Amino acid sequence: MRGVAADADVDASVVSHYFGSKQGLFTAAAALPIDPEAVLAELLDGPRGPVTADAPCPSASAG
Predict the structure, then answer these.
(1) Domain for residue 4, yes or no?
(2) Could you give the 3-state DSSP secondary structure of residue 32?
(3) Is the overall model pTM greater than 0.70, yes or no?
(4) How far is the C-alpha of 50 from the C-alpha of 54, rounded, in Å?
(5) Quick count: other Cβ atoms within 10 Å of Cβ 49?
(6) pLDDT tens sequence across 11-45
């Protein structure tokens, strides 16, 4: 944790305060930026149809 604190240019006690332990720091660092369950539910609730080579990619229209 001292190495992370040094890289962040903060005192190690700050890292300890926010993350509690090495395990807490690792858990926060490895956390997914999305909720896989919510994404999967959204995908499963979406439209269904035949898959063809010329079908538009749904994510291409998002934005």
Answers:
(1) yes
(2) coil
(3) no
(4) 11
(5) 6
(6) 999 999 999 999 999 999 998 888 888 888 888 88
